[in-house]
Design a protein that fits this description.
Elements lengths: L2 E2 L8 H6 L10 H7 L3 H8 L10 H7 L4 H13 L1 E2 L9 H30 L7 H34 L9 H6 L9 H10 L4 H57 L9 H11 L4 H8 L3 H15 L4 H10 L9
Antiparallel strand pairs: 1-2
Length: about 325
């Protein structure tokens, strides 16, 4: 069951009604977009191309190689503010990674330069404040650029390594989350200055109004982007870290059991003693069965521990079964 996660205040009944619908895989993609045109940009980030006709969300995702479950999760989070449980293992980290990386490309290579160009055009009336406004915009844009480039150089490669089953020392998603700065307020000062202090000019006013609208949309996009990272991406990475760690531990145990670190092999006599031990025999009973002294049994046991690095009877039992020394009924 999903829980509410409010992205912004709902200021009208119309918005409340709009946010009540949770979209599902069997909804038509055209209906989703018609209801929420802001998701057009999201389609591009997922790598979904237009021209999908009247196909359902599931059909479009399947045809275009997108994990449908993750797509629907992101859509309902962005539109309705609903987030899954943090333990939802069905969310595809690979799909989220591709979505965030494509969003960065769109924002840095298209969105920021486009707004900058429109702002420059709207200030081309010769106002002496124009250079200062543009410099302020460039400073904010630079901060956001650094923020996203850090993720691309540090977090994204780390996640890719996890997807390959590799563990990277001295880094984890908690380090990222702890230092994940909020970029959503970067343009607040810029908007206020434009609205409050720029001289009136009818033509420039129309252009500035359009540019301000773009900046407000841009700020909302940054909010959504940051929330997707914190609420969906970070928990999914935590689960992936746990899985990789568990797989690594299992691999180590398997390697220890089947391929002891020591290059010394277990002798035939030691194999016999292992079988006797897992069957519950004492040193004296083993000595009697194999016609050797108790001291010799103890020496062999020490050698077994040294070679296998297994100290418990349970571990020795697993080793014996894994190496076909004994069957379960014999224990």
């Amino acid at each position: 069951m999903m829980k509410k996660y409010y992205l912004c205040s709902q200021n009208s009944d119309r918005n409340n009604m709009k946010r009540m619908k949770l979209y599902e895989a069997d909804d038509k993609m055209i209906d989703l977009i018609s209801d929420n045109y802001s998701m057009l940009q999201g389609l591009g980030a997922f790598g979904i191309h237009l021209g999908f006709g009247d196909k359902t969300v599931e059909e479009v995702c399947h045809e275009q190689g997108v994990d449908c479950y993750t797509f629907v999760i992101v859509v309902n989070f962005l539109i309705n503010g609903y987030a899954p449980k943090e333990t939802d293992e069905k969310i595809s980290v690979k799909t989220l990674l591709g979505y965030l990386r494509a969003s960065h490309t769109f924002f840095l290579d298209y969105q920021l330069p486009t707004i900058r160009r429109r702002l420059e055009e709207s200030l081309a009336d010769g106002s002496g404040l124009a250079p200062l406004i543009l410099r302020l915009y460039d400073e904010y844009a630079h901060d956001i650029h650094l923020h996203m480039k850090y993720e691309e150089k540090t977090l994204f490669p780390y996640v890719e390594a996890l997807l390959r089953g590799e563990r990277i020392p001295n880094y984890n998603v908690e380090i990222f989350s702890k230092h994940h700065s909020d970029t959503t307020g970067k343009f607040q000062e810029l908007k206020n200055i434009i609205i409050k202090y720029l001289p009136h000019n009818s033509l420039a006013n129309h252009q500035l109004t359009g540019t301000l609208y773009d900046i407000y949309n841009n700020e909302e996009w940054l909010t959504n982007h940051s929330n997707v990272e914190e609420v969906l991406f970070v928990p999914a990475i935590r689960l992936l870290e746990q899985k990789v760690k568990a797989d690594d531990v299992t691999a180590r145990i398997t390697s220890m059991i089947k391929c002891p670190e020591s290059t010394e092999s277990i002798s035939e006599r030691e194999r016999e003693i292992i079988v006797c031990l897992v069957q519950g025999m004492s040193n004296k009973e083993i000595a009697s069965r194999l016609f050797i002294s108790v001291n010799t049994v103890i020496t062999h046991r020490r050698n077994i521990v040294r070679k296998l690095q297994i100290h418990s009877l349970a571990g020795l039992t697993i080793y014996a079964i894994a190496n076909n020394m004994i069957d379960m009924p014999q224990i």
